[in-house]
Amino acid sequence: MPGRDGVIASPNIWNWPDVYEAENRAQDVTGEIEAVLRDLTPWAGRDVVDVGCGTGFHLPLFAREARSVVGVEPHPPLIERARIRVTGSAVRVVRGTADRLPLEDCSVDVVHARTAYFFGPGCGPGITEAMRVLRPGGVLVVVDLDATVDPYGAWMRRDLPHYDPLTVERFFAAQGFDLRRVLTRWSFADREEAAAVLGIEFSPRVAARALRQLTGTSVEVGYRVHTRRRPHGLETA
Ligand SMILES: C[S@@+](CC[C@H](N)C(=O)[O-])C[C@H]1O[C@@H](n2cnc3c(N)ncnc32)[C@H](O)[C@@H]1O
């Protein structure tokens, strides 16, 4: 749930940014999400914003081909890290939240958010805001974990007994989003790294169980990719 300032606490990356960096490196080692993003919303020559960009891990991917890239992030220490990451490039990192983007109307083609803010019911203001900054035909693409896919989903559900993935899916469907499921593989450098990453994602009990269930150093993890296009035609308020 967002706080008064609209920010959703993100202890994993706020408290352990270096472990989260290892987590990002471990995620989707075969590039399934990237392939789906390219299919759904190609960004070559386009203007892209990454909402809740954290330390900016995904900014270089977009920057290689996009016309412009802006990272939006509310947490100042992460803004600093993201800026260091993109030093020497044209990428801008600015302070802001999903429900109040520091961007002009109709100024971007792709709004990307990965495991940030758009977690289901309650993120309506961010959807409205994304539609404001998108040009007609532009796309809001939300990448999030799919808690219906085990074993990772079972670990999530154990820690978040009130989280109902189907409610989340129904919410996005009712808001006019299309859904694409993506099966990925996370692969850690070693079991020590796996333990550190599981330790920032789950309670100690669930993290210990997850580590026991992890065979070797990799695990299948499901994602949902939700997309909503800003219509070309006339919109009524
Ligand atoms: C789990 S991290 C993901 C970071 C990044 N997208 C990545 O994949 O590496 C979630 C991020 O969302 C940010 N965040 C929290 N509340 C937000 C809001 N209201 N609008 C935009 N970002 C927000 C957090 O500060 C954090 O950086």
UniProtKB/TrEMBL annotation:
InterPro entries membership: Methyltransf_11, SAM-dependent_MTases_sf
Keywords: Methyltransferase, Transferase
Pfam families: Methyltransf_11
Keyword Transmembrane: no
GO BP terms, alphabetized: methylation
GO molecular function, one term: methyltransferase activity
Source species, domain of life: Bacteria
Boundaries of every Methyltransferase type domain copy: 49-142
Protein name, UniProt field: SAM-dependent methyltransferase
Species whose genome carries this gene: Rhodococcoides corynebacterioides
